[in-house]
Write a structure and sequence with these properties.
single chain; about 210 residues; alpha+beta; Protein Transport Mog1p, Chain A; nine-stranded antiparallel β-sheet; 4 helices; 9 strands; about 25% helix; about 30% strand
């Protein structure tokens, strides 16, 4: 894999966090949430692109490659599902959703994922000395059991620059991770629209 491809793989990692959870039929849990399968974002609910419409892929079991680098130590052992989103240009997004056995386990999982995201810039620089990475914390979102948004910018020694937005949200036993990414820097990030997308993603879980 070339350094440019690897860097793009690392940096396209965040955002789209809500397509990962098949749930077994059964009674409601302690929060009153039923075990119906979480719903995913639709293409129209992504941050609007100025020159291209979004296309949504199929809901698929597993973890998309774009999300693996920063959260690979946390996800093994979980059943997950995701949805991929693309435009005609380089802007892309993913939503990953995981359903666990209880609200307490979901809270612990969300805490680990947030920790992974906060550490990802350092992890990228340690993995590739020719890539500089910077993280911005965009704060908490008041939706269901809560959500948190981040920005991650990477720049290589040969000038490739990418901006990623990530969020982690939770509702009952379901945790979702959303990532949005394109070429650019923090000034190109649609933070307000991404927060709206995250809120929608969490509200759609149940």
């Amino acid at each position: 894999m070339s350094k440019r491809t690897r860097a793009a793989s690392l940096t396209t990692f965040v955002a789209a966090s809500v397509a990962l959870g098949a749930v077994l039929a059964g009674p409601a849990d302690a929060t009153g949430k039923t075990s119906a399968s979480p719903k995913f974002l639709s293409a129209s609910q992504l941050p609007p692109h100025p020159s291209s419409s979004w296309r949504a892929g199929k809901i698929t079991d597993g973890v998309p490659d774009e999300l693996r680098f920063c959260i690979q130590d946390t996800l093994p052992g979980y059943d997950s599902r995701y949805r991929d989103f693309r435009t005609d240009l380089e802007t892309n997004a993913q939503q990953l959703t995981i359903v666990v056995g209880s609200s307490a386990k979901a809270k612990a999982l969300a805490t680990r994922l947030n920790k992974d995201l906060r550490a990802c810039a350092t992890r990228i620089e340690q993995s590739d000395p020719e890539t500089e990475a910077a993280l911005k914390d965009y704060g908490k979102l008041s939706v269901e059991e809560g959500a948190h948004a981040y920005g991650l910018h990477t720049e290589t020694s040969w000038g490739a620059t990418d901006i990623n937005l990530y969020s982690v949200g939770r509702d009952g036993r379901a945790v979702t991770l959303v990532r949005w990414a394109q070429m650019g820097d923090f000034s190109d990030a649609p933070v307000k629209a991404f927060k709206k997308t995250t809120t929608t993603a969490v509200n759609k879980l149940y």
